[in-house]
Amino acid sequence: MIIIGLLGKAGSGKTSVAKYLQLKGFRIISFAGPIKELAREYFGLTAEEVYETKPPHARTILQGIGSLIREQIDENYFIQEAANKIRYADLQAQLFCIDDVRLMAEAQFIKDLGGIVVKIECPDSPQSLTEQAQAHITEQLDGIPYHKLISAGHGNLTALYSEIEGILLSETAS
Questions:
Q1: In total, how many domains does the chain have?
Q2: At 155, which CATH number?
Q3: For residue 16, what are the domain limits?
Q4: What is the pTM (predicted TM-score) of this model?
Q5: Is residue 59 packed enough to be buried (19+ CB in 10 Å), middle (13-18) or exposed (0-12)?
Q6: CA-to-CA distance for 111 and 105, rounded, in angstroms?
Q7: Burial label, 89 (beta-carbon count in 10 A; 0-12, 13-18, 19+)
Q8: Is the distance from CB of 1 to CB of 45 less than 8 angstroms?
């Protein structure tokens, strides 16, 4: 089984890399999946707002739901949900990509399963988050351990895909 977690700030390329890995046979799992579904069901957000564009009002709602559940219900709720998706995946599913590593506990979960965390940096990506969104715990990524770092200029998907291919080669060789 191979598990790759993607760590990076908003706009770094996590979704692009996850979609590339999906083409390689990886099943995408998101810690924030349940948050996004709650936001759609109870706050009337569209799929585009929660999965693609994430305008400021949507990001505020998503961050608020996640914080509320972690603080008031169970700090590991989303990790347990991801663990269940991996545990109960069909036997043929042996390749997993967790596309939204944002917290220390999430990175540790991936490490505990024998997976790797890949940090994606995009130094010239325009910062579109409000100050409030930037200050949220899910955007404070410094200090979260990772195994590999990949970096490419904004929009240079070819470079990102090439770097992820190198990681895949090293993971399948071990």
A1: 1
A2: 3.40.50.300
A3: 2-173
A4: 0.87
A5: buried
A6: 10
A7: middle
A8: no
